[in-house]
Amino acid sequence: MANITPYSSPHYFIYLLLLLLPIIIGLWFGKRFRAYDFFATVVILITAFFGGNMTQGISLLCYVLYEMLLVFIFLSYRKKHNNFWVFTMFVLLAIVPLVFVKLDPLLKNQTISLFGFMGISYLTFKSVEIIMEIRDGVIKKITPYEFGRFLLFFPTITSGPIDRFKRFQKDVDKVPSRDEYVELLHSGVNKLMKGLLYKFIIGYFFGTLLLPKVQILAMSYRYQAPLGLSWWVLAYMYVYSMYLFFDFAGYSLFAVAISNFMGIKTPMNFDAPFKAKNIKDFWNRWHKTLSFWFRDFIYMRLMFTIIKHKWIKNRVTIANVGYVALFLIMGFWHGETWYYIVYGIFHAIAMITNDAWLRYKKKHRESIPSNKFTHAFAVFLTFNIVCFSFLIFSGFLNTLWFS
Amino acid sequence: MDEIKTKIVDILKDVTGLDDAGQNADQDLFKDGVLDSMATVEVLVNLQDEFDITVPVSEFDRSQWSTVNKIAQQVQELE
């Protein structure tokens, strides 16, 4: 039996809803059955990770135990001391498994990524969050059970959205009232339907039906246009962008819907990203839980350190250094290929340019028109810049130029 | 408490360069665009120095720090 990727096919939902039924009935009557929750988690983990030769499952278990060990050693250390370098060492140790997994394709050596399994990034985000919050004194106590339950919460295990420990804890420790739960079921069903439409209909249309055709056409015209950039590459850019959004937004809706059925208000990942009026606005709407994670745990902390130690005086320079650091790290996180790194740099430049424009606009407020046409233009421009960045991200330019 | 609030308003004015920043103690500073990430960090650094507290930089729940009144509340708890 092979591993079953959560939400990858419509039938998955039939089995999943059967598995969830006792949880839903329990919550309806105001009860959480801890033992059953545990059982359901085990079932999902087995189907998702222990198919075939079980390597993914074993990696997952080792990974969770390793992160748990780090968190609890750091927690007991933090009760008495608070050294910056010790903290940094724990953060680095927490990301070591992920770094290995990400480096693997580069080294073409499958053996070093002992910890490779689907969703390792998302579990690492959660673990690092916990270590950083223990450092900040926001998390003062956490039990191994709570840690495992947060990390292995199955609706979001493979691809997020990335919840935060304290927020998750608040939901999971209580049972919603009947009214609240009816509301949650209602929003869950809505999201599930919208997710099915996004992923299995619109996403399927763009990704499975259209994309391969456009790709073949773009490849067949590659010698007729400078740098191979025929109009079909432009078509590829838009089709890929639509596919990326509908597929991922659909998946994220499933994860939030299933969480809602379990009485957990997992945060949403997308908020009409193509309506963004500038690139900053875009990142507040696209893969929000990831961009907020990067904002809170990388950008803000880096800014804070730079300002506190007065390493750089100029405000604009500090913000720009922060953007470059954030988006480079995001690029490297996506994978060690030139196009992910370029994608990161491209977004850093877009953010820096956007900030400069906003500063200019603030100074010349009277002379710059602002009406519904300028707004429409801003949305159009942002959309195209974003789609262009997705063309870089897709790796298609790599195929076009170097294959 | 009022002394804390006055200090917070001074910090806000300093950081944002807006004379009316924090005028209304219940104004949502994030929603109204008074504070972006950068300005937020500057405010946090200033609060840390001014009140000699350690602020949580990351899981700083925005809804708990969104107005002058709420910031004052948080500062008092951390002091």
TrEMBL record, chain A:
<feature type="transmembrane region" description="Helical">
    <location>
        <begin position="238"/>
        <end position="258"/>
    </location>
</feature>
<feature type="transmembrane region" description="Helical">
    <location>
        <begin position="84"/>
        <end position="101"/>
    </location>
</feature>
<dbReference type="InterPro" id="IPR024024">
    <property type="entry name" value="DltB"/>
</dbReference>
<feature type="transmembrane region" description="Helical">
    <location>
        <begin position="107"/>
        <end position="125"/>
    </location>
</feature>
<feature type="transmembrane region" description="Helical">
    <location>
        <begin position="12"/>
        <end position="29"/>
    </location>
</feature>
<dbReference type="GO" id="GO:0016746">
    <property type="term" value="F:acyltransferase activity"/>
</dbReference>
<keyword id="KW-1133">Transmembrane helix</keyword>
<feature type="transmembrane region" description="Helical">
    <location>
        <begin position="340"/>
        <end position="358"/>
    </location>
</feature>
<dbReference type="InterPro" id="IPR004299">
    <property type="entry name" value="MBOAT_fam"/>
</dbReference>
<dbReference type="InterPro" id="IPR051085">
    <property type="entry name" value="MB_O-acyltransferase"/>
</dbReference>
<keyword id="KW-0808">Transferase</keyword>
<keyword id="KW-0472">Membrane</keyword>
<feature type="transmembrane region" description="Helical">
    <location>
        <begin position="58"/>
        <end position="77"/>
    </location>
</feature>
<comment type="pathway">
    <text>Cell wall biogenesis; lipoteichoic acid biosynthesis.</text>
</comment>
<dbReference type="Pfam" id="PF03062">
    <property type="entry name" value="MBOAT"/>
</dbReference>
<comment type="function">
    <text>O-acyltransferase that catalyzes D-alanylation of both teichoic acid and lipoteichoic acid (LTA). D-alanylation of LTA plays an important role in modulating the properties of the cell wall in Gram-positive bacteria, influencing the net charge of the cell wall. Catalyzes D-alanylation from DltC carrier protein.</text>
</comment>
<feature type="transmembrane region" description="Helical">
    <location>
        <begin position="316"/>
        <end position="334"/>
    </location>
</feature>
<comment type="similarity">
    <text>Belongs to the membrane-bound acyltransferase family.</text>
</comment>
<protein>
    <recommendedName>
        <fullName>Teichoic acid D-alanyltransferase</fullName>
        <ecNumber>2.3.1.-</ecNumber>
    </recommendedName>
</protein>
<dbReference type="InterPro" id="IPR024194">
    <property type="entry name" value="Ac/AlaTfrase_AlgI/DltB"/>
</dbReference>
<dbReference type="GO" id="GO:0070395">
    <property type="term" value="P:lipoteichoic acid biosynthetic process"/>
</dbReference>
<feature type="transmembrane region" description="Helical">
    <location>
        <begin position="379"/>
        <end position="402"/>
    </location>
</feature>
From TrEMBL, chain B:
<feature type="modified residue" description="O-(pantetheine 4'-phosphoryl)serine">
    <location>
        <position position="37"/>
    </location>
</feature>
<dbReference type="InterPro" id="IPR003230">
    <property type="entry name" value="DltC"/>
</dbReference>
<comment type="pathway">
    <text>Cell wall biogenesis; lipoteichoic acid biosynthesis.</text>
</comment>
<dbReference type="InterPro" id="IPR036736">
    <property type="entry name" value="ACP-like_sf"/>
</dbReference>
<keyword id="KW-0597">Phosphoprotein</keyword>
<comment type="similarity">
    <text>Belongs to the DltC family.</text>
</comment>
<dbReference type="GO" id="GO:0070395">
    <property type="term" value="P:lipoteichoic acid biosynthetic process"/>
</dbReference>
<keyword id="KW-0961">Cell wall biogenesis/degradation</keyword>
<protein>
    <recommendedName>
        <fullName>D-alanyl carrier protein</fullName>
    </recommendedName>
</protein>
<comment type="function">
    <text>Carrier protein involved in the D-alanylation of lipoteichoic acid (LTA). The loading of thioester-linked D-alanine onto DltC is catalyzed by D-alanine--D-alanyl carrier protein ligase DltA. The DltC-carried D-alanyl group is further transferred to cell membrane phosphatidylglycerol (PG) by forming an ester bond, probably catalyzed by DltD. D-alanylation of LTA plays an important role in modulating the properties of the cell wall in Gram-positive bacteria, influencing the net charge of the cell wall.</text>
</comment>
<dbReference type="GO" id="GO:0036370">
    <property type="term" value="F:D-alanyl carrier activity"/>
</dbReference>
<dbReference type="InterPro" id="IPR009081">
    <property type="entry name" value="PP-bd_ACP"/>
</dbReference>
<feature type="domain" description="Carrier">
    <location>
        <begin position="2"/>
        <end position="79"/>
    </location>
</feature>
<keyword id="KW-0963">Cytoplasm</keyword>
<dbReference type="GO" id="GO:0005737">
    <property type="term" value="C:cytoplasm"/>
</dbReference>
<dbReference type="GO" id="GO:0071555">
    <property type="term" value="P:cell wall organization"/>
</dbReference>
<dbReference type="Pfam" id="PF00550">
    <property type="entry name" value="PP-binding"/>
</dbReference>
<keyword id="KW-0596">Phosphopantetheine</keyword>
